[in-house]
Design brief:
Layout (H helix, E strand, L loop, with lengths): L4 E8 L2 E6 L3 E6 L13 E7 L2 E6 L1 H4 L12 E6 L4 E6 L1 E7 L4 E3 H4 L6 E7 L2 E6 L7 H11 L1
Parallel strand pairs: 2-11, 5-7
Antiparallel strand pairs: 1-2, 1-8, 3-6, 4-5, 6-7, 9-10, 10-11
Length: 149
């Protein structure tokens, strides 16, 4: 495999996504999420990770997928954008590798695609590669900052 790209792959229902490994610190089992008043709709609440209070984002809501209750085997991806640490609630997560030939920039798919950097074409299907820096709008960033104070 020439120039492998490592990603953290995750699923929401039958849909597959990925994050560049460089944006991810770790993956842990889901824990209780404390609601955060006045947070943007995309924020499920907050969790305490080793003394740090981190916002948990509702990826299902962002991608317009059906909502569901948190399950015992759900996972939290603890990561960061260039602006903040964050947590994503997902159904399952694992490490995937793909070559340069398997990754296509989002612009090749559609020039106005939101939230994604590209698509990986793997033997078992397509995986949308997510960009955490595009996850929140500026208004959502400001509302979250205000709610966390």
């Amino acid at each position: 495999m020439s120039n492998p790209h490592q990603h953290v792959g995750f699923t929401l229902d039958e849909h597959r996504y990925a994050l560049p490994l460089s944006f991810v610190e770790r993956i842990v089992r889901a824990v209780e999420i404390t609601p955060l008043p006045k947070a943007p709709e995309i924020v499920l609440g907050i969790v305490n990770v080793e003394g740090c209070v981190l916002p948990v984002f509702d990826v299902r809501k962002r991608f317009r997928l059906p909502q569901r209750e948190i399950q015992l085997n759900d996972q939290l991806i603890i990561g960061h954008s260039t602006r903040r640490p964050l947590v994503l609630l997902v159904d399952a997560a694992d490490i995937i590798e793909c070559s340069d030939q398997e990754v296509f920039p989002a612009e090749q798919i559609h020039p106005a695609i939101e939230y994604f950097d590209g698509v990986a074409k793997l033997e078992d299907g397509l995986v949308l590669i997510h960009d955490l820096n595009k996850f929140l709008s500026l208004d959502e960033e400001e509302a979250l900052d205000h709610a966390l104070k």
